[in-house]
Amino acid sequence: xxxxxxLSYTERAALCTNRMAQQLFSLLSEKETNLALSADVTSxxxxxxxxxxxxxEICILKTHVDILTDFTVGATQExxxxxxxxxxxxxxxxxxxxxxxxxxxxxxxxxxHIADWADIVNAHSLPGPGVISxxxxxxxxxxxxLLLLAEMSSAGNLINSDYTQxxxxxxxxxxxxxxxxxxxxKIANDPWWLYMTPGVxxxxxxxxxxxxxxxxxxxxxxxxxxxxIVGRGILQAKDPLVETKKYRQxxxxxxxxxx
Length: 259
Fold this sequence. Notes:
Elements: H1 9-15, H2 19-31, E1 35-38, H3 44-54, E2 60-63, H4 73-86, E3 89-96, H5 100-108, E4 120-123, H6 130-139, E5 145-149, H7 161-172, E6 178-182, E7 194-197, E8 205-206, E9 212-213, H8 216-222, E10 227-230, H9 232-235, H10 240-258
Parallel strand pairs: 1-2, 1-10, 2-3, 3-4, 4-5, 5-6, 6-7, 7-10
Antiparallel strand pairs: 8-9
Helix pairs in contact: 1-2, 3-4, 5-6, 8-10
């Protein structure tokens, strides 16, 4: 049985010193949605269409820019406009995992210039604190935020509890840049860390490639995550907008019930 008080998003925003965490907790509360859409599509047109159609229902649009076959800088500029119009943040799911100098260039340069348009990115802690330092050099001045991968939802992944706790300790060294974690459950009682959980569907199960799915209620109420990440459960639906509204309601109801 949990012994600590479950704070609201608004209460936690007031306790944050990380600017991006404050902004995101406030957005969750004001927009009344804790749904992140994983927009795993392969064309800019499809990405922008999803952003415009489903943007009013979500708090975050999660992208994989390197699977876009027709990427242009203009598309990211249009995405920024839609994010402002519909009030959601952009999260590039890049999963940086190299030495600091390399990830700095991957983040700010190349053909994608991720630091110019993505509010949030993520990284593996495996390379050590240098990966955070390198990303911070490129993103902190632009008021960006970083999530660390503390847990994964795929079967057979090599992350164990020791790795997760070391990831937490690493995050504590960079409170101005790290806003939280990709995780299956809350890993610390500090209220300023934000948790996003992938692998969420309305019914539990798994796919043929080892992905485990949990329900919004399990993720938010039982595991004390903050944001549910949904991809195929929405994208493969007959009517993605109707399904998005279902997930939004399920996620928000689970949050309200947890308070």
